[in-house]
Write a structure and sequence with these properties.
This protein has 417 residues and is of the alpha/beta class. The structure holds 2-phosphoglycolic acid and zinc ion (ZN).
């Protein structure tokens, strides 16, 4: 079995928003891997740069003219060496040279090619023979904020978390039932609701945040009773998009209110208590570690998760750990570029009791690699929608993994601290 890289082939493809993106094939002597990069809409300002100047076309040229030659002859088994080489070729601190999405596609395609060269599935290759834990699916049911174009709740995402499920199939079944029930409820409740959905497949309706909270509560309760296990829910406030630096306030446009930091804290504590939220992502803007820490101290049985706050960056996570800002972290590999960078962050989070939440991007392809990363690295949660093609690609891959593992499969150890 040889994992020596023979060739890299790169092409332009499209994501579910119709945006151009990059796909890379890595060919080894005995194997093959393919990966395509996702794209965010509510991006953190500390994310790496997606493409070099000139966009996807320039990235393809970099692969053809330089990266393919430099990686040829290297061993795909040594992921760190491949990723270090990508950093060296790039030569910048934020992947401005070759593009973070270029690095992402090469890095993930390489990992898969290595696994394939050994006749293993990606999660087995990365996680070893003992890897057998499935994540809980955190599924977006109602969209708002920057993920919508018209009137919708100011909060970006309302997400179901069926944390009482005994299997991934049961959990994903519950999420589909909740999603469907919400669609039916919105049809009754909101005049003008026409069944529209966001890029992530969540419903878009002209309702207030309050109405969204009530709808989620009812749907999760009813489905919880039907399936006979606990179905909770949470939110992604995505509050960097609401924060106005000059005014030092969060602007709730739909609601017609503004909240300063103290009011935002109070609002979120109230919401967490009133609706028994199990998950709150980006409750404060991306530089406010202190308020994250305060909310974490003042809430119980709820994950306080940093997405734009950490941008999967290990240094930013270390800063958060020092201040005890949050107790969970979103892992989006293309926020940092390579698999090695992301696994450093995942391991740091694990060592320090933070819950890893592997996540899709709102603009995504049918690439399913994050399903394998969740299992390989024992991430207790995967955030990747409920319906829509790019989401289903990952969710169905987890169902395949669960099926493949048979009676060895377990649900991850999820603590809602
Ligand atoms: P994205 O953000 O649009 O940048 O993918 C989704 C999120 O905030 O989690
Ligand atoms: Zn987010």
């Amino acid at each position: 079995m040889s994992s020596i890289i023979e060739d890299l082939i790169a092409r332009k493809v499209f994501n579910n928003r119709g945006e151009e993106t990059i796909e890379v094939d890595v060919v080894t002597a005995n194997g093959f891997g393919r990966a395509s990069a996702p794209a965010g809409k509510s991006r953190g300002k500390n994310e790496v740069v997606y493409y070099p100047q000139g966009g996807v076309d320039a990235a393809l040229k970099k692969i053809d003219e330089q990266i393919a030659q430099e990686l040829a002859g290297l061993n795909a088994d040594f992921q760190e060496e491949i990723d270090t080489t990508l950093h060296e070729i790039d030569g910048t601190a934020n992947f401005k040279g070759i593009g973070g999405n270029t690095a992402y596609a090469v890095s993930l395609a390489n990992a898969e090619a290595a696994a394939n060269s050994h006749g293993l599935l990606l999660f087995q290759f990365l996680g070893g023979n003992a890897a057998n834990m499935l994540p809980y699916p955190l599924g977006n049911c109602i969209s708002g904020g920057q993920h919508t174009r018209g009137k919708a709740p100011d909060i970006q995402e309302f997400l179901a978390l069926p944390h009482g499920a005994a299997t991934f199939l049961e959990a994903q079944t519950a999420n589909t039932l909740i999603h469907k029930k919400i669609g039916d409820m919105l049809k009754k409740k909101s005049t003008g609701f026409n069944g529209g959905k966001s890029d992530e497949g969540a419903w878009i309706a002209n309702i207030t945040s309050e109405e969204a909270f009530e709808t989620m509560t009812k749907a999760c309760e009813e489905v919880g009773n039907e399936v006979d296990f606990e179905c909770g829910f949470g939110i992604d406030v995505a509050s960097s998009g609401m924060w106005k630096e000059k005014e030092e306030k969060y602007i709730y446009e739909r609601e017609g209110t503004k909240r300063d930091t103290a009011e935002q804290l109070e609002y979120l504590i109230d919401l967490t208590e009133k609706y028994h939220l199990t998950y709150v992502e980006d409750p404060f803007h991306e530089e406010d570690f202190e308020s994250f820490a305060e909310l974490t101290r003042k809430t119980k049985n709820c994950l306080i998760c940093g997405d734009d706050l950490f941008t999967t960056n290990n240094e930013r996570l270390s800063q958060g750990i020092k201040q005890r800002a949050g107790n969970a972290i979103i892992i989006k590999v293309n926020q940092v570029g390579t698999l090695t960078d992301a696994t450093d962050t995942i391991e740091n989070a694990q060592r320090n009791g933070y819950t890893n939440v592997v996540s899709h991007r709102s603009g995504d392809t049918t690439d399913w690699h994050i399903a394998h990363l969740a299992v390989a690295y024992k991430c207790p949660i995967i955030k990747t929608g409920v319906v829509e093609g790019a989401r289903i690609a990952k969710l169905n891959e987890l169902l395949r993994i669960e099926h493949f593992l048979g009676n060895r499969a377990r649900m991850a150890d999820l603590k809602l601290t």
